[in-house]
């Protein structure tokens, strides 16, 4: 933490801003930190907390006397105060019936900013975007998660046979992260305690501010805890089931106790994915303690609980063995006033009495449950029908709220500038109004194209920077340099495939006919390049095999350097990719992608989607704002589906996409392509914004829960 005595009084609130990640989605504040000290801004990885601790006294004195900087500072502070403290918000106008209490949001991971690497992928991005949007709309929200000092692993790719992914864990320096430790009234680090079998563990808490939303991150690495429990919260999504259940007990049971200890009394509780379900049990225990019997207590909890599930494939659900649950909850079910069998029944799904299914528990304990896209809603109702055997499938009580992305976080600064110029300074305030986007035709195609080319060059710069770093570290050969993007061509049609490596996303689909692909990529006049990025879960060997396959091809000179693999996909890399690619490719096996959000981030930046109609794209695709791969009936055999989609993908590329991209006017502008970019922006931005999504959660689900 920077010592505030060094920061001159005139700009003393820099520290407050640095500790509220609000700055990260308010462009003028970002510019202000950049101007404060550009080299420290870059060296800190865009992390003002670290930046402030490295700036010299002289530099502080200079900027504190620089009128241009002071104007930026005053503007950012004024906007911050206005936004954080404004009494009239969308929420006060539209949801006053929610009352005073906040919504408590529980999630295993949060992606709020890259300086806080406590996320693995889409689930965390969604949670972060919800916290930010709740703040923007004035919805009182607190969030509960984990402070993982080592987070998720960093990925490096190497040429070791059969093991191209190196998993590197770095420990976060808490002093450089935008977090503040909360202390108990007695000054101790343990805010509350939770019992794991016969061990009582203290739980420490770190506060992260995302605008108005307080995010409380739980931490077991405090001195009073014995080893190995101190390491319990080190890493996200470890394969070890014992650690997973312990983490989920801390999150669910500990999370409720932490909020109580901090004097926070939520009126609605929203669980994000099955990892959070023990939260519902702990609140039931509280009601039983107040004198209710179990059914009454469960009814009270249900009324105030919202649950969102994200997993359309059964194997992806969080399941613990009955004996494991037994060993942690014997003693706990007594405090709920129920016996073992009733307790185990809460996690029962179908004919699997040995399994305790965390999603089944959530669906039974939440009064309102939702899926994350229309199609996923259908899949979920079918999958969970056995929990409501008396109901027909379409009456299974699982609704859907299609995901969205936080526009101020994901829009490129250059486009923000262009939209401000043509649509008005208040365009972000009106972002989900489709009428606003009818005016996108007022923006000249030339201007959008210039903007896009600039973003593509930024992507190139980021690719080269990463590569340069690896070159300096040594141990990379020429082919690896090529696969890292040494031959990136900013003039070539650029297709990005950036996502978790996992079988159902079929990253290898493009390579089914390697010769045909090679012809497409290496066309001398109309070349195409592929940029891959994504991590394999350390314990998912099928996925690692796919990654190896793609990496080997990227290293194969026969593709002439037109296939690249960007290491260590994270929020930062995602920003460059969703801003600077031309095409966003997604090829999930149908009905297996719950929603997906990266395609939305791309679309709002004019990066055109080329995707299987699954998840959100089944709703987002309108026939003229991108392309649908392999449309046709479902229930194909997997190999037939693969063959159909591959053929469709190659056909689209050869006959439609490549010709459209290279059809240029004398000034170099591909006008029809840019028109499609515009349709992508105007159709996707208002409808798949986090604004639309959070308004839906609030007005449909939170208000109903609060009323009960
Ligand atoms: C948006 C995002 C995701 C989620 O992308 P999907 O569309 O669900 O594949 C994952 N990781 C990062 C870093 C992201 O920014």
How would you describe the overall organization of this protein?
The chain has 708 residues and is an alpha/beta fold. The chain has 29 helices and 20 strands. Pyridoxal-5'-phosphate (PLP) binds at residues 121-122, 125, 499, 569-571, 574, 596-599, 601.
Task: Set down the secondary structure blueprint.
Elements (H helix, E strand, L loop, with lengths): L13 H5 L8 H10 L1 H6 L4 H7 L2 H8 L2 H19 L4 H5 L8 E4 L15 H16 L3 E6 L7 E4 L7 E4 L11 E3 L9 E5 L2 E12 L2 E7 L21 H21 L6 E5 L5 H12 L4 H10 L1 E4 L10 E3 H8 L2 H4 L4 H7 L8 E3 H8 L2 E4 L2 H11 L13 E3 L6 H4 L2 H11 L10 H5 L6 H29 L4 H6 L9 E6 L15 H8 L6 E6 L7 H14 L8 E4 L4 H10 L2 E4 L11 H7 L3 E5 L4 H4 L5 E4 L8 H24 L9 H17 L2 H18 L1
Parallel strand pairs: 1-2, 1-9, 2-8, 9-10, 10-13, 13-14, 15-16, 15-18, 16-17, 18-19, 19-20
Antiparallel strand pairs: 3-4, 5-7, 6-7, 7-8, 11-12
Helix pairs in contact: 2-6, 8-29, 9-10, 10-11, 20-24, 20-28, 24-25
Pyridoxal-5'-phosphate binds next to helix 8, helix 24 and helix 25.
What tags apply to this protein structure?
Rossmann fold, single chain, 14% strand, 44% helix, 3 domains, binds pyridoxal-5'-phosphate, 708 residues, six-stranded parallel beta sheet, 29 helices, alpha/beta, globular
Q: Tally the structural domains.
A: 3
CATH-assigned fold name of the largest domain: Rossmann fold
The N- and C-terminal alpha carbons lie at a distance of 44 Å
Q: Which structural class is indicated by helix and strand composition?
A: alpha/beta
Q: Ions, cofactors, ligands: which are bound?
A: pyridoxal-5'-phosphate
The second-level CATH architecture of the largest domain is 3-Layer(aba) Sandwich
Largest sheet: 10 strands, mixed
The CATH homologous superfamily of the largest domain is called Glycogen Phosphorylase B
State the CATH class of the largest domain: Alpha Beta
SS strand fraction: 5-15%
The number of strands is 20
Radius of gyration: 25 Å
Low-confidence stretches are: none
Give the rounded overall mean pLDDT: 95
Helix content: 40-55%
- Figure out the total of helices: 29
């Amino acid at each position: 933490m920077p010592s505030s005595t060094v920061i001159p009084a005139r700009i003393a609130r820099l520290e407050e801003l640095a500790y509220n990640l609000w700055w990260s989605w308010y462009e003028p504040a970002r510019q202000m930190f950049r101007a404060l000290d550009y080299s420290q801004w870059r060296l800190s990885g865009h992390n003002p907390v670290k930046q402030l601790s490295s700036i010299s006294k002289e530099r502080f004195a200079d900027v504190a006397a620089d009128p241009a900087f002071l104007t930026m500072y005053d503007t950012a502070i004024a906007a911050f105060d206005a936004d954080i403290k404004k009494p009239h918000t969308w929420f006060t106008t539209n949801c006053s019936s929610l009352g005073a209490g906040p919504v408590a949001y529980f999630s295993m991971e949060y992606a709020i900013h890259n300086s806080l690497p406590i996320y693995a992928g889409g689930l965390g991005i969604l949670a972060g975007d919800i916290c930010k949007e709740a703040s923007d709309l004035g919805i009182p929200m607190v969030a509960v998660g984990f402070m993982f000092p080592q987070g998720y692993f960093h990925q490096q790719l190497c040429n070791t046979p059969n093991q191209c992914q190196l998993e590197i864990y770095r420990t976060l320096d808490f002093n450089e992260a935008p977090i503040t430790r909360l202390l108990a009234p007695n000054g101790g680090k343990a805010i509350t305690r939770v019992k794991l079998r016969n061990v009582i563990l203290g739980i420490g808490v770190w506060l992260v501010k995302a605008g108005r939303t307080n995010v409380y991150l739980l931490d077991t690495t405090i001195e009073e805890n014995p080893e190995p429990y101190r390491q319990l919260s080190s890493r996200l999504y470890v394969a070890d089931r014992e650690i997973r259940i312990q983490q989920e007990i801390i999150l669910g049971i500990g999370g409720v106790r932490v909020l109580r200890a901090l004097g926070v009394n939520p009126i609605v509780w929203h669980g994000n994915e099955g990892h959070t379900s023990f939260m519902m049990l702990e609140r039931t225990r509280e009601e039983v303690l107040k004198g209710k019997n179990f059914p009454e207590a469960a009814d009270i909890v249900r009324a105030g609980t919202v649950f969102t599930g994200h997993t359309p494939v059964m194997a992806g659900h969080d399941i613990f063995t009955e004996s494991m649950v037994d060993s942690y909850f014997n003693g706990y079910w007594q405090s709920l006033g129920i016996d073992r069998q009733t307790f185990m029944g809460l996690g029962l799904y179908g004919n699997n009495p040995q399994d305790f299914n965390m999603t089944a528990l959530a669906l039974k304990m939440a009064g309102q449950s939702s899926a994350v896209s229309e199609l996923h809603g259908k899949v979920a109702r079918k999958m969970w029908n056995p929990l409501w055997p008396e109901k027909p499938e379409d009456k299974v009580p699982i609704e859907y709220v299609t995901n969205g992305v936080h526009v101020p976080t994901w829009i490129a600064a250059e486009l923000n500038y262009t939209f401000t110029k043509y649509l008005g300074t208040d365009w972000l305030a009106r972002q989900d109004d489709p009428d606003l986007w009818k005016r996108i035709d007022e923006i000249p195609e030339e201007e959008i194209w210039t903007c896009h080319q600039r973003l593509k060059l930024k992507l190139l710069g980021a690719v080269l920077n990463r590569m340069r770093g690896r070159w300096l570290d040594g141990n990379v050969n020429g082919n690896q340099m090529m696969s890292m993007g040494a031959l990136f061509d900013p003039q070539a049609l650029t297709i990005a495939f950036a996502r978790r490596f996992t079988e159902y996303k079929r990253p290898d689909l493009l390579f089914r006919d390697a010769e045909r692909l090679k012809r497409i990529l290496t066309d001398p006049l109309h070349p195409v390049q592929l940029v891959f990025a994504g991590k394999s879960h350390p314990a998912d060997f099928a996925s690692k095999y796919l990654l190896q396959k793609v990496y080997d091809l990227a290293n194969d000179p026969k593709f002439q350097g037109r296939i690249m693999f960007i290491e260590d996909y994270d929020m930062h890399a995602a920003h460059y990719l969703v801003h600077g690619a031309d095409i966003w490719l997604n090829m999930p096996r149908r009905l297996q992608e719950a929603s997906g959000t990266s395609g939305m981030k791309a679309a709002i930046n004019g990066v055109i989607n080329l995707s299987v109609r699954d998840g959100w794209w089944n709703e987002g695709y309108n026939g003229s704002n991108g392309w649908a791969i392999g449309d046709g009936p479902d229930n194909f055999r997997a190999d037939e589906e693969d063959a159909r989609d591959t053929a469709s993908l190659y056909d689209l590329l050869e006959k439609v996409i490549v010709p459209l991209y290279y059809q240029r006017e004398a000034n170099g502008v591909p006008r029809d392509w840019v028109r499609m970019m515009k349709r992508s922006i105007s159709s996707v931005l208002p409808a798949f914004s986090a604004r639309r999504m959070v308004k839906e959660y609030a007005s449909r689900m939170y208000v109903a829960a609060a009323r009960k």
